[in-house]
Amino acid sequence: MTEYDHNKETLPYTIAIIKPDTVLNREKVQEILTRIEDEGFSINNILQRFLTKEEVLNLFFKHLNKDYLDKILVYMMSGESMIILLTNQVTNPIEKWKKLIGPMDPNEAKRSAPNSLRAKFGFDLIRNELHGSDNPRAVSYTHLTL
After folding, report:
1. Gyration radius of the chain's alpha carbons
2. In the chain, N or C: fewer CB atoms in 10 Å?
3. In 54-98, which ranges are E strands?
4. What is the pLDDT of residue 7?
């Protein structure tokens, strides 16, 4: 993972999202937040709210041509999500968050990354319960207001 040089650049960040079904369960949310902090992240801001269609499309722009995009839209707009601004002063927070949440498919996560958050909390490809952008450019395109 890339190391952060505090003398040369602003603090790198990523946006983490806990999806609607999990947000309904306070115990699960607290377990995820505790795990995030235990993994060395700083939680700089948290906001719980409904996402707009435009925000969901921005978050999932790489899936625009997939046949399951409508299912993602319906699910992500079905309830409030928790949007979390994460930083990490030692490693690249995007890479670190992606590793912590595991593969997109929770069934794959259970096989290849059994300690990942998606392995523990995910249900299926649509309701994998956590979102993480793949790169800094994707993070900057999310246009979520924290």
Report:
1. 15
2. C
3. 81-87
4. 52
> For residue 89, what are the contacts with CB-CB under 8 A and spacing of at least 6?
4, 6, 11, 42
Outline where DSSP puts E strands in 27-99: 42-49, 81-87
Nearest Cα neighbor of 82 from 136, 20, 128, 125 is 20
16-37 in b/e form (b: 16+ CB < 10 A) is bbbbbbbbeeeebbeebbeebe
Q: What is the pLDDT of residues 29-64, one digit of tens each?
A: 999 999 999 999 999 999 999 999 999 999 999 899
131 is catalytic: yes
Give the per-residue pLDDT at 141: 46
d(Cα 89, Cα 8) in Å, to the nearest integer? 12
Catalytic residue among 6, 63, 131, 143: 131
End-to-end CA gap in the chain: 26
Looking at this protein, which amino acid is placed at residue 61?
F
Distance CA 117, CA 114 (A): 8
